[in-house]
Design a protein that fits this description.
The chain has 107 residues and is mostly helical. The protein is built from six helices and two strands; from the N terminus they run αβααβααα. Helices cover 49% and strands 9% of the residues. It has a two-stranded parallel ribbon.
Length: 107
């Protein structure tokens, strides 16, 4: 899982914020989370795009030149990486996505 790699890299307690997608609430996922004492999960209400900073990231990622239709999973992965890469150099964009929710990284 990507979260395992993030934990190895950061060596810190991580918190995932999830919506209620059936994959996020499945018994398998609950078991996987329970096996990771360094992982916490916070769930969003049933439908709350205004509380989910990822909605802003997806919106920014979809903007730009014509929407491309990938020919397969490898092309899709390359497209997502290419669209996300510039965002890593724009912390103000990511901060704006978080600020748009009214949430904060401060406790």
């Amino acid at each position: 899982m990507l979260v395992d790699a993030a934990h190895r890299l950061l060596g810190a307690f991580l918190v995932r914020v999830w919506d209620n997608l059936n994959r996020h609430t499945s018994a398998n996922m609950r078991r996987r989370v329970a096996e990771r004492g360094w992982l916490g999960v916070e769930r969003l209400p049933g439908y709350a795009p205004d509380l989910n900073p990822v909605e802003g990231v997806w919106s920014a990622m979809r903007s730009g030149p014509a929407t491309l239709v990938p020919g397969g999973i490898d092309e899709l992965a390359a497209l997502v990486r290419a669209r996300l890469r510039p965002m890593q150099y724009c912390p103000e964009l990511l901060e704006g996505c978080l600020a748009g929710t009214g949430l904060s990284l401060e406790p």
